């Protein structure tokens, strides 16, 4: 524990002690289930605890304790084998990969999974073909084209000045920040690395900084145009405060060092995203001279997005669609997606109350009220319909209207005001 003893780490040490106490309680619980203890294996696990930052050890033990109690409750005939299986599972949690070594990266040619100091990241393919697949956000697309795509495709246009190769996307959750990063990578035909703050945090002291350094180094080694997308960047670089622990300070320092090095990397671009830009450390925030606000969709953008989400519904009743658009002010793109997803379930829910079906030409069963006539009627409950034979009616506009009563916007007005204040600073 010597590597944890720091005047600024008293909170971490308290959590560490609580975690060890939880482990002792777990050990007592194991014995109460009349299971034979495996002393050497338990001792080995306690040794591994010494290498953990307290708060992370706390999370590991809490999660594993829950799993253990569930397994023990299901297996009333506990045995030494059951205990050993559990202890091995706990050992895997405490040591998910080998201890940090001097190796920096390894790239698997088959899965394209990159191991950096014990953390794994994926070199992935963008989920969309380009910016054309994103509804609305016309001004945002123009800005991204000018700031990212043109410098990569037509660098001679920017020969008179230095091109910024880092960009911060911020805005409410569910507005498409991640999708935009994928679209930019697709437009640029770039290699695309996508990670979040939770991917890079390691349980071992000092390993997170090494993983961060190794990741940036790996991206710089790419020979072609490369985009590194860092989601939830606020998770590792929040504002500094007097009670901040040493681990957090070291991580911010390492991130700033890597951002400085990244500025001189040709054909490399860093895109970071956050829902809480006001929580970012001011020194980190200054590194992002280019910041783009991704707002909630306006009226026209909501209609465009709803059209994309309901391509199978003819827009024959424009009056009702206009009512839907008016009543979705304040909805994010994610909220609208949830609205349509729930509306598409309405016809399926109706099948639960269907007792009379009509057999169609392709031998499927549909609710009889959808057709006229009395031929080919089948009386049965949904549970009695043969596997794969039930069919629901198509979703209709009135289903969307009905779901407006229950699917409400998730972004409070106070938070929108907070974004506007940040933009105008």
Automatic annotation (TrEMBL):
InterPro entries: AAA+_ATPase, AAA_lid_3, ATPase_AAA_core, MT-severing_AAA_ATPase, P-loop_NTPase
Origin: domain of life: Eukaryota
A GO MF label: ATP hydrolysis activity
Domain AAA+ ATPase: 163-298
GO biological process per UniProt: endosomal transport; vacuole organization
Protein name: AAA+ ATPase domain-containing protein
Organism: Photinus pyralis (Common eastern firefly)
């Amino acid at each position: 524990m010597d590597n944890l003893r720091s005047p600024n780490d008293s909170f971490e040490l308290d959590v560490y002690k609580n975690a060890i106490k939880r482990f002792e309680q777990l050990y007592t619980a194991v014995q109460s289930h009349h299971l034979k203890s495996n002393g050497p294996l338990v001792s080995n696990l306690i040794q591994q605890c010494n290498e953990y930052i307290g708060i992370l050890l706390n999370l590991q033990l809490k999660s594993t304790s829950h799993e253990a109690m569930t397994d023990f409750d299901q297996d009333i005939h506990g045995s030494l084998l059951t205990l050993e299986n559990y202890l091995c599972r706990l050992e895997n949690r405490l040591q998910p990969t080998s201890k940090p070594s001097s190796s920096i990266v390894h790239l698997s040619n088959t899965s394209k999974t990159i191991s950096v100091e014990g953390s794994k990241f994926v070199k992935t393919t963008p989920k969309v073909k380009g910016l054309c697949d994103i509804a609305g956000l016309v001004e945002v697309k123009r800005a991204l084209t000018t700031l990212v795509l043109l410098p990569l495709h037509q660098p001679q246009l920017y020969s008179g000045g230095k091109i910024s190769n880092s960009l911060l996307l911020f805005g409410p959750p569910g507005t498409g920040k991640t999708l935009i990063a994928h679209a930019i990578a697709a437009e640029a035909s770039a290699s695309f690395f996508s990670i979040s703050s939770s991917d890079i945090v390691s349980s071992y002291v000092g390993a997170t900084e090494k993983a961060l350094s190794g990741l940036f180094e790996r991206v710089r080694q790419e020979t072609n145009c490369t985009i590194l997308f860092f989601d939830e960047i606020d998770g590792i670089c929040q504002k500094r405060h007097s009670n901040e622990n040493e681990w957090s300070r070291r991580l911010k320092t390492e991130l700033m060092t890597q951002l400085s090095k990244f500025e001189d990397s040709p054909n490399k671009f860093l895109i970071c995203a956050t829902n809480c830009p006001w929580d970012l450390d001011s020194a980190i925030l200054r590194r992002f001279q280019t910041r783009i606000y991704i707002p909630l969709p306006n009226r026209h953008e909501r209609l465009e997005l709803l059209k994309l989400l309901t391509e199978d519904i003819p827009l024959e009743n424009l009056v009702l669609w206009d009512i839907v658009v008016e009543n979705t002010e304040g909805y994010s793109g994610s909220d609208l997606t949830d609205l349509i997803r729930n509306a598409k379930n309405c016809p399926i829910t109706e099948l639960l109350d269907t007792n009379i079906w009509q057999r169609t030409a392709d031998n499927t069963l549909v609710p009889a009220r959808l057709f006229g006539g009395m031929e080919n009627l089948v009386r049965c409950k949904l549970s009695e319909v043969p596997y794969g034979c039930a069919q629901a009616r198509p979703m209709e506009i009135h289903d969307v209207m009905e779901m407006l009563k229950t699917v409400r916007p998730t972004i409070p007005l106070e938070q929108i005001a907070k974004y506007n204040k940040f933009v105008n600073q």
